[in-house]
Automatic annotation (TrEMBL):
InterPro entries linked to this entry: AhpC/TSA, Peroxiredoxin, Peroxiredoxin_AhpC-typ, Peroxiredoxin_C, Thioredoxin-like_sf, Thioredoxin_domain
Keyword Disulfide bond included in the entry's annotation: yes
Originating organism: Cecembia lonarensis (strain CCUG 58316 / KCTC 22772 / LW9)
Name used for this protein in its record: Thioredoxin peroxidase
CDD domains, per the entry: PRX_Typ2cys
Alphabetical GO biological process terms: cell redox homeostasis; cellular response to stress; hydrogen peroxide catabolic process; response to oxidative stress
GO CC, alphabetical: cytosol
Task performed by this protein: Thiol-specific peroxidase that catalyzes the reduction of hydrogen peroxide and organic hydroperoxides to water and alcohols, respectively. Plays a role in cell protection against oxidative stress by detoxifying peroxides.
Source species taxonomy: Bacteria, Pseudomonadati, Bacteroidota, Cytophagia, Cytophagales
Gene this protein is translated from: tsaA_2
Domain of life (superkingdom): Bacteria
UniProt keyword annotations, A-Z: Cytoplasm, Disulfide bond, Oxidoreductase, Peroxidase, Redox-active center
């Protein structure tokens, strides 16, 4: 089930903030009424595609921040594992230098509530609880507005890395819609023509292409 148009599931969990400090009760609730949030899940610490994405978000962090957007990552690893990875240099496969929060979803409840857990619990013939699939998160990305409502979501399979510039484009589109009341057509980018949400608006836009 898609979360678009619905309130983002809130949580309180351990996290590493500022690249070095473990906090016990991190929550997205702190951003409601203040900032939009790009909340993304990745499969595992100390892997291969994941550090490229995490570092790419860090490289674009200033672009998100100047737009008033917080970036928060999460996986089903523990906060101690997050911290160990953050303390490992890039030359050794680490993500040293990442400063935005990384949430620890060791119980897998956050990933489950966001619909990105790559499997599910079930009972076998002996009545024992089992897990079918991979007990880690897909590459889910959620754009959450200041009211705590999900405005965009994408979910990638494990080997498919994200395009971070597309996340910035979506933030720009959301801000344009909120500021001007226009809608953003296919391939819209900041500075390009948008259009009114009417038949006339569509006709005018298409005739100008």
């Amino acid at each position: 089930m898609s979360l678009v148009g619905k309130k983002a599931p809130l949580f309180s969990a351990g996290a590493v903030v500022n690249g070095e400090e473990i906090v016990e009760n991190f929550s997205l609730e702190q951003y409601i009424g203040k900032k939009e949030v790009i909340f993304f899940f990745y499969p595992k610490d100390f892997t291969f595609v994941c550090p490229t994405e995490i570092i790419a978000f860090q490289e674009k962090l200033a672009e998100f921040e100047k737009r008033g957007v917080a970036v928060v990552g999460a996986s089903t690893d523990t906060e101690e594992t997050h911290l160990a990875w953050l303390m490992t240099s890039k030359d050794n496969g680490g993500i040293e230098g990442v400063t935005y929060p990384l949430v620890a979803d060791a119980a897998k409840t956050i990933a489950h509530n966001y619909g990105v857990l790559a499997g599910e619990w079930n009972y076998n013939e002996e009545g024992m609880l089992t897990f079918e699939g991979a007990p880690i998160a897909y590459r889910g990305t959620f754009l959450i507005d200041k009211e705590g409502v999900v405005r965009h979501e994408t979910i990638n399979d494990f080997p498919l890395g994200r395009n971070i510039d597309e996340m910035i484009r979506l933030v720009d589109a959301l801000h344009h819609v909120e500021k001007f009341g226009e809608v953003c057509p296919a391939n819209w980018e900041e500075g390009k023509e948008a259009m009114a949400a009417t038949k006339e608006g569509v006709a005018t836009y298409l005739s100008n292409k």
